[in-house]
Amino acid sequence: MTRRTATPHGRGRETHETSRAQTAGASPGADPDARLAEADGGPGDRSESRSHGESDGGRKRTVLISGASVAGPALAYWLCRHGYRSTVVEVAPALRDGGFAVDFRGAAHLTVLECMGILDEIRRHSTGGGSAMSFIDERGRQLASLPPEFAGGDLEILRSDLARILYHHSLAAAADGHPAPEYLFDDTITSLTPAPDGVHATFARTPSRTFDLVIGADGLHSTVRRLAFGPERDFVSHLGYYVAAWDLPESAGHLAAQAVGYSEPGRIATVGRTPRRSADPGYAGEAFCVFASDEELTHDRRDLPAHKEAIARAYAGAGWRTPELIDTLRAADELYFDSISRVDVPCWSTGRIALLGDAAYGATLGGMGTGSAIIGAYVLAAELAASPDDHSAAFTRYERRLRPYVTQCQEGGRGAGAFFAPTTQEAIDARNAALNDPAARAAMLQQGHDLSTAITLDDHLPAERTLHPTGTAIDLT
Ligand SMILES: Cc1cc2nc3c(=O)[nH]c(=O)nc-3n(C[C@H](O)[C@H](O)[C@H](O)COP(=O)(O)OP(=O)(O)OC[C@H]3O[C@@H](n4cnc5c(N)ncnc54)[C@H](O)[C@@H]3O)c2cc1C
Predict the structure, then answer these.
(1) pTM value?
(2) CA geometry: angle at 351 spanning 93 and 55, to 5°?
(3) How confident is the model at residue 464 (pLDDT cuts 50, 70, 90)?
């Protein structure tokens, strides 16, 4: 693999514009009522933690993190606890609102949330569990049903709620004298160049700076990965499906009265409601669609009209009430639309730059990306704190520890597109038959559970902690 640490665009270019970036104190997207639990336990609690982020000369080590969704703020939290000074740059002007429910499952996910001190907070904001969904025929008759825990795992939360909790929690971690993370919204890294003892970063808006380390937590389409490791096509494989989700306008709320999914070969259209959002003004339910397509869309990922057109094309001529549903796209001003893809990066670090979360090991659907991002942030921060003077060794241990686990989780997601949108009628019938068979259904659920718990974290948990009991019927011991 070619190891590159500079961008062809604007190498070494300094920007001296006045920064329009918002910093932490401005609290973009902040929920003023958010009450944050005090951090408890975890490696950050060790008494010597404050010194981990200091160099020999007593200077705080600095880490630039790209992305303020899940992985980025989770890492900022842990690095803060270890005494590092983090700067998180987010391309969106505020914490992003979009995205539907994400879930945590199994003892490893829950333990890390508990170590962060946010498990209860997440429980308070949870959706209350996934919804059962019926697969229906053209006339609305039930053919099979999907149990709620299939989508909702042990704990389900809206992605935007989770991001907000993590963001506030990372800021609150500074309360006991740790350096607060700095958030730069509405900005992006434009180049990364190795410098003596650091990485020189230029930004679109903020004046350039040099950091000790840079972490790409900027998702499936990571900019840090492109700048430091190579073009997206080298690392992201399209798995032949697309996923789209959007909110329904009030006028179409009747479509979501029951959670149902209508399948035809190569496409499914589903509707439902998330109880947690029922009090949101104007919330009437949401559409979630998966369709097969080998074609890789090449237009701008922020081109909303082009996305809407691609979705409408994919559902042309579909039965049931799909035309009515697709019609609601016109009113949607937020849309989650992406290919079902998988990220494989042969080595997650190059020099002082490393990747985390979806940027390193993402899988769009079914790959437990959110739980893996949380665990990854925990392990990466703990490894950096364990050898603060040797980031290479820390990056190597982080990858060695995490790769087998996240690769298995990604593999689990490989069949997600084919599960939702089988490409033949025979395959649709086989899926429905499996869902109607209690043993096959239980095996599917167990498989997901086994994948999520296939990491022990023994060497990272404080001595007095054990993996969190999930409270599910499955015996973890
Ligand atoms: C808007 C949105 C909606 C989503 N909806 C769902 C969903 O409904 N269901 C689901 O299972 N998963 C969803 N995901 C993905 C899910 O959040 C991730 O798979 C998982 O949580 C891992 O998180 P991550 O932090 O690694 O990546 P992501 O959550 O993808 O976050 C990456 C962050 O980096 C930011 N970013 C991107 N480029 C740059 C740049 N150049 N500079 C600075 N910041 C940048 C993005 O704006 C984003 O905030 C969504 C992600 C996003 C961003």
Answers:
(1) 0.84
(2) 85
(3) low
